[in-house]
């Protein structure tokens, strides 16, 4: 619940940022700040009407005309390929990729993956992989992936993941919350391995715990769960503006390059548990993710 403030001041005029889930919550707050700093901002979202409303609001509040929407459904690998093909055809530079979108829910994606694994990790894995070369072309690009403190309670059973294509399933709240935690562990391990694969380039990457934030993350949970969560959130949780600060820190702070692959909270680098820095597990997750994307 601690607050922090981004002090980073990297110039953003002429630079381009893609933000998944940029139509609401932390993503929208991040988009607003980057637009204020002169960046061209692309909201990569599934819901067209919400995204267009967010674009109009950000443009009105910042005076920037360089804010736009491109459709992206992270629960559909074909949609991710289509998004990347369209973006790459435009010839636009890419300086920041903010893997922000996430959800807590049960069910399956269009490709048959557990929805939390598919959206929170695998969709972002594929999106990042397809856009890496464009990030390298711009020089000094960054990938910021929003994880969570919940990664500490995650667990990845690779044999079950390959066989069942999910990190856990079940109708009880604790079952899909456990899968959520595991998807957030995937985010940290993905960033760990991505940093290794980016060595020799000037692209860097970071994972982020934004704090305990009031967002639409739990919009798919049941009514009785919302009745419990929302009053608590209203009085105790951070607002999206405060929740965006560590993401913005990793986007805008100068001198972070030696910390590529690390995990940040409260605008500072933090240590993670042994399982979140397990190099063998990070490599295995990358290999399994590649295979699953190729097969689908």
From TrEMBL:
Domain Ketoreductase intervals: 15-156
InterPro entries, A to Z: KR_dom (IPR057326), NAD(P)-bd_dom_sf (IPR036291), SDR_fam (IPR002347)
Pfam family, one: adh_short
MF (Gene Ontology): oxidoreductase activity
Alphabetized UniProt keyword annotations: Oxidoreductase
PANTHER family in UniProt: DEHYDROGENASE_REDUCTASE SDR FAMILY MEMBER 13, PHOSPHATIDYLINOSITOL-GLYCAN BIOSYNTHESIS CLASS F PROTEIN-RELATED
Entry similarity comment: Belongs to the short-chain dehydrogenases/reductases (SDR) family.
UniProt-recorded name of the protein: Dehydrogenase/reductase (SDR family) member 13a, tandem duplicate 2
């Amino acid at each position: 619940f601690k607050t922090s403030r981004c002090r980073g001041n990297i110039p953003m005029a002429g630079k381009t940022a893609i933000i998944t889930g940029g139509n609401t919550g932390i993503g929208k707050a991040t988009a607003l700040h980057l637009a204020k700093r002169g960046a061209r901002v692309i909201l990569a979202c599934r819901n067209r009407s919400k995204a267009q409303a967010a674009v109009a609001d950000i443009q009105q509040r910042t005076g920037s005309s360089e804010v736009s929407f491109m459709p992206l459904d992270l629960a559909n690998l074909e949609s991710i390929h289509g998004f990347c093909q369209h973006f790459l055809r435009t010839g636009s530079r890419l300086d920041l990729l903010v893997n922000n979108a996430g959800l807590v829910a049960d069910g399956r994606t269009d490709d048959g993956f557990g929805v939390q694994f598919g959206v929170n990790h695998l969709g972002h894995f594929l999106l990042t992989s397809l856009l890496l070369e464009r990030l390298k072309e711009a020089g000094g690009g960054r990938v910021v992936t929003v994880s969570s403190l919940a990664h500490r309670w995650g667990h990845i059973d690779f044999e079950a993941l390959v066989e069942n294509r999910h990190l856990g399933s079940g109708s009880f709240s604790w079952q899909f919350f456990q899968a959520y935690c595991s998807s957030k562990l995937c985010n940290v391990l993905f960033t760990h391995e991505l940093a290794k694969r980016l060595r020799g380039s000037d692209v860097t990457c970071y994972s982020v715990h934004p704090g305990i934030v009031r967002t639409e993350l739990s919009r798919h949970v049941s009514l009785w769960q919302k009745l419990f969560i929302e009053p608590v959130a209203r009085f105790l949780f951070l607002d999206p503006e405060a929740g965006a600060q560590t993401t913005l820190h990793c986007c805008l702070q100068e001198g972070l390059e030696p910390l590529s692959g690390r995990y940040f909270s409260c605008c500072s680098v933090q240590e993670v548990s042994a399982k979140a820095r397990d190099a063998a597990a990070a490599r295995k997750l990358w290999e399994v993710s590649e295979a699953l994307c190729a097969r689908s």
